[in-house]
Amino acid sequence: MRLIPLKELPPQELFLNAMQQRKGKRDFNSVQNRSHRQIPWKPVHDTKPDFCSDAWSTALSPDGGVMASCHGDRTLKFWNVKTGERIKTLIHQQPIWACSFSPSGWGIATAGIDGMIWLWELETSRCFGKLQGHTGWIHTLDFSSIDDVIASGSTDTTVRLWNIATGKCLAVFEGHDRPVHTVEFDPTGHLLASISDDQVIKVWNIQTGECLSTLIGHYNNFADDMWALIN
Question: pTM for the full model?
Answer without folding.
Answer: 0.75
